[in-house]
Design goal:
425 residues, RNA-binding, Helix Hairpins, alpha+beta, 2 domains, BirA Bifunctional Protein, domain 2, 8-stranded mixed sheet
RNA sequence: GGAGGGAUGGCAGAGCGGCCGAAUGCGAGGCUCUUGAAAAGCCUUGAGACGCAAGUCUCCGUGGGUUCAAAUCCCACUCCCUCCGCCA
């Protein structure tokens, strides 16, 4: 959630920044007005309470002094003021509910350096690494599901039999490639990130406060008999760990990585780009996530982006870095860089990582703070990015590594992890 | 799943319905003493909301109830611990 103070202190500027993210101005106005109403009601409640507290204390004093009749008289009057407090409280709840509802629709404020734009088309390619169209001329590339299907390392039909569409079954060298990718990613980042093995099911409270379950949409799977949700990303437990904590400043930044399975319902996303392993309900991912001081978050974002790029560089995959425009930013992010790998089999750039700066948006809802060395507390900034999202990297390796004889060449850096230079089945 | 115990500030740990936002100890910060340090002594030290400020309000696991008044009494829930059962 955003800082409501920004709306009362500097409405025009804040509204202008939100409008860049396609937020309707009426929504921002209504948040400001409701916040003001709330302030007023809270003040009335406080005043009423003060009166009541003072009265109650007088009753106590009179009783101790043995002045019974005076105490009884006062007590009768206080019963009424309790009714008044209850009425005011009811109004406060009403206003707060309305405010929460509006605030829940307001996304994080885009960073001023983010380019203007309203859609994907306005995103900016920052740089391209390792890609030369000449490399692909004079040869045909098949999509990964063809290559992998023929090798028997990917079985889409059995996956559908077990679980329906958008699930995968990997076999033999395909399963080994998946496992190797995970190990590779964890090893690559172990010096800067603390490895965590978190739960894959979390409470409603946790997934809500990390921003992955809202009144308006749910990408997550719910367990039937318990108040638990399967995580859509490792970010959820990594950030949820510190909810309601006040961290010592000296502990920051906290950099974590976690290998988890991720589940996404992706309702309505069926159809396009779903062939093979491009989009799955269940996939494996090594997530990088961190908490830091606000003044460090720009530098941490650059470093995190570099770390995520390093995964692709080391694997020798051609990719480009795309900065999302204001109108295309995800709800919680103030700034996002997508990493897209070139997939020759489908001749497309596929998003394999989304590196996000979330500023204090997530920390505010999750109440993740730190104690400043000079005194006082403040919300941390949070960041996250995929260190390696397996399905699309897996398929990119298959498409790039395909050889005339139908086998797949394994990138050199991955050979020790997969245990073979060539996947032949 | 069954039986019992518990949840209070950074930690440990008190707390007869009113003088309790809360003893005490530890930790942390400041000061005195000292050449310096230790020891000792003194002082300070939870979070949040509103307010220029004085100050007021909220928070003792969560939610409800009783009462003029709840950390304290009642109800429900959640979590933790111990024992039993089951189990990778």
């Amino acid at each position: 959630m955003i800082d409501l103070k920004l709306l009362s202190d500097d409405f025009e500027a804040t509204a202008a920044r939100l409008v860049r993210k396609r937020v309707p101005i009426e929504l921002v106005r209504s948040a400001r007005d409701l916040a003001e109403s709330r302030r007023q009601v809270v003040r009335e409640v406080d005043d009423a309470r003060q009166e009541m507290n003072a009265g109650s204390q007088s009753v106590g004093r009179l009783m101790r002094e043995g002045r019974r009749e005076e105490a009884d008289a006062l007590r009768a009057g206080l019963a009424d003021s309790r009714g008044r407090i209850e009425a005011l409280e009811a109004r406060r709840r009403e206003v707060e509910e309305a405010l929460d509802d509006v605030v829940a629709r307001i996304p994080n404020i885009p960073d001023d350096v983010v380019p203007d734009g309203t859609s994907e088309d306005d995103n900016r390619v920052v740089r391209t690494h390792g890609y030369d169209p000449a490399d692909y001329e004079g040869r045909s590339y098949e999509p990964h599901w063809e290559v992998a299907g023929r090798l028997g390392i990917y079985d889409g039909e059995r996956a559908a039999k077990l679980s329906g569409g958008m699930f995968s079954v990997l076999r033999g060298g395909g399963a080994r490639l998946l496992r190797g990718l995970v190990d590779f990613a964890l090893d690559l980042h172990k010096d800067r990130y603390l490895e965590i093995a978190p739960p894959h099911a979390v409470r409603s409270d946790v997934i809500t406060r990390t921003g992955h379950l809202t009144k308006f949409e749910s990408q997550a799977y719910k367990l039937r008999d318990d108040d638990l949700w399967l995580i859509p990303t490792g970010e959820v437990p990594l950030m949820g760990m510190h909810q309601d904590e006040i961290l010592p400043e000296a502990d920051l930044p906290l950099r974590y990585m976690a290998y988890t399975v991720c589940w996404r319902r992706e309702a309505g996303a069926a159809g396009k780009d779903t062939r093979g392993m491009q989009r799955l309900h269940e996939f494996h991912k090594v997530e990088l996530a961190e908490l830091c001081r606000p003044e460090d978050s720009d530098a941490e974002l650059a470093a995190l982006l570099g770390d995520c790029e390093r995964s692709l560089q080391t694997l020798g995959l051609p990719y480009r870095v795309v900065e999302l425009c204001a109108g295309d930013l995800t709800f919680s992010a103030s700034r996002v860089f997508d990493l897209e790998v070139y997939s020759p089999g489908v001749d497309r750039w596929l998003e394999v990582s989304s590196v996000s700066l979330v500023t204090d948006f997530q920390a505010r809802r999750g109440a993740i703070r730190y104690r400043k060395e000079g005194g006082g507390t403040a919300f941390v900034h949070t960041l996250n990015g995929s260190g390696l999202a397996t399905p699309r990297v897996w398929s990119a390796i298959v498409e790039h590594g395909q050889q005339p004889d139908g086998t797949v060449r394994v990138p050199a850096a991955l050979v020790p992890y997969v245990g073979t230079e060539v996947i032949a089945g």
